[in-house]
Amino acid sequence: MSERRLAVIDLGSNSFRLVVFTWVPGRWWKRTDEIHESVRLGQGLDASGALQPAPMERALETIELYAHFCRATGIEEIRPVATSAIRDATNRDELLRKARERSGLEIEVLSREDEAYYGYLAVVNSTALTDGVALDIGGGSMQLVHVRDRQELDAQSWPLGAVRMTERFLPDEKAKDKQIEALREHVRGELESAPWLEGAAERGERIAGIGGALRNLATAAELEGELPSFGVQGFTLRKKALSKMVDELADLPASERGELPGIKKERGDLILAAAVVIEEVMKTGGFDAIETTEEGLREGVFFSVLQEDREPPLFEDVRHASVFNLAGQYHPEPAHTNHVARLALEVWDELAAAGQHEGDAEEREMLWAAAILHDIGTAVDYDDHHRHSRYLVLSAGLPGWSLRETVLIAQMVRYHRKGSPSLADFERLTEEGDDELLLRCSAVLRLAEQFERARDQAVKAAHIAVSDGSVDLTIESDEDVTVARWAAERTSDVFERAFGKELRVS
Question: Domains in the chain, ordered, with CATH?
Answer without folding.
Answer: 4-110 (3.30.420.40), 113-298 (3.30.420.150), 319-505 (1.10.3210.10)
